[in-house]
Amino acid sequence: MFAFPGILTLHAIGMGFAVGTSVALDLRILGVAPGVPVAAMRRFMPILWAGFWLNAASGFLLLIGYPTKALTNPVFYLKLLLIGAAMALLVRIGRTVFGDAAASDISGQNASPRLRRLAIASLVCWASAVIAGRLLAYTYTRLTQLH
Amino acid sequence: MHAFQVWLVATLGGESPVADVMRTAWAWPLAESLHFLGLCLLVGCVGTFDLRLLGVARRVPIAAVHRFIPWGLLGFAINIITGALFLLTEPDQYIYNPSFHFKLLFMTIGGLNAATFYLTSYRRVFGAAATLDAPWHARVIAAISLCAWIGVIVGGRLITFYRPAECVGEQTSLLLICAP
Questions:
Q1: How far, CA to CA in Å, does B150 sit from each of B41, B53, B155?
Q2: What are A60-67's contacts with CB under 8 Å, separation 24+?
Q3: Are B178 and B171 contacting, i.e. CB atoms less than 8 angstroms apart?
Q4: Residue B81 to residue B84: CA distance in whole angstroms
Q5: Directed axis angle between helix B136-157 and helix B98-120, to 10°?
Q6: Which ipTM score applies to this complex?
Q7: Which of B30, B33, B66, B79 to probe the A interface (max A CBs under 10 A)?
Q8: CA distance B144 to B147
Q9: Nearest CA in chain B to A135
Q10: What mean pLDDT comes out for the span B79-87?
Q11: Which terminus of chain B has a smaller tally of CB atoms within 10 A, N or C?
Q12: Residue B48 and residue A24 in contact, taking contact as beta carbons nearer than 8 Å
């Protein structure tokens, strides 16, 4: 499959921007760059979503390329689960800090304990998803279907 | 350059306590996972700052967004360390690999580009008279930065597809891309 390395490369780039931008938002909530209003981080979210959809598309193509390799590996389902959890956390964090009722969480370092927990959970989910994804290359048992 | 590459591979060795640990079952995958996490941290934090220079979230002071940069540097440090582990274990797989050459080229561009930013734009961007809009040359630097780090990812991700074969016949290319 000639396109495989190219799609894999796009998948790595999309990961960098999707996970990286989400991590930057989490770090901001946890007190990094206190001069940046948390609500202003909303401006960077389009690059996160661009990375996410790039990876949904490139990931789908990788799955079509080697369906047996992924679908027979439990780690693949774990990775999907972790990405789902990370995206659900992102949406919840977004509602809290970008929504209309965000005023109390916007300024300075005073993120609520609940918001901080969400940010830490987000970091853990993303890190686990990236590790699970990387381990797919080492944990598969079948590359293609046995005849 | 050929002799230098051969010397480099011989010097880095591939036979050391580090290489022994890296050849255990899970050390290499673990180091790779850390390398990917470092990538995310680097691209996320440096990319956010680059986008700010390019005009995203332009009401936020540039200096405030710059506070993400140390975390990007942490990602870079993680990747230099994990990258060194790979290089020390299988030096010939990188030193003779054209994709790794491109990765180093883009890393150099990214590094020189960042140095240029601090040398030319620091006062304009962070000084007392700093404005919300970055000067044009800082915007150019930000765009180059984004392209350079994407280039680094491309070069890194493709390393595995350009593993060097044994050299056959005389090599005339500037850099050796086969194992002598």
A1: 14, 17, 9
A2: A61/A3, A61/A7, A62/A4, A62/A7, A62/A8, A62/A11, A65/A1, A65/A4, A65/A7, A66/A143, A66/A144
A3: yes
A4: 5
A5: 160
A6: 0.94
A7: B33
A8: 5
A9: B29
A10: 97
A11: N
A12: yes
Residue pair A14/A52 in contact by the 8 Å Cβ criterion: yes
Q: What type of residue is B36?
A: F
| pLDDT for the residue numbered A91 | 96
Can you give the pLDDT at residue B24? 93
* CA-closest candidate to residue B8, choices B87, B63, B80, B82: B87
Using the beta-carbon criterion (under 8 Å), do B44 and A21 form an inter-chain contact?
A: yes
**DSSP, residue by residue, A53-120:** HHHHHHHHHHHHHSHHHHHT-HHHHHHHHHHHHHHHHHHHHHHHHHSGGGHHHHSTT---HHHHHHHH
pLDDT, residue B138, reads 95
Averaged pLDDT for residues B3-27: 92
Question: Rounded to whole angstroms, how far apart are CA atoms A94 and A49?
Answer: 12
Neighbours of A130 (CB within 10 A): 22
Per-residue pLDDT of chain A (147 residues), as tens digits, is 558 999 999 999 999 999 999 999 999 999 999 999 999 999 999 999 999 999 999 999 999 999 999 999 999 999 999 999 999 999 999 999 998 655 554 555 578 899 999 999 999 999 999 999 999 999 988 888 765
DSSP B128: T
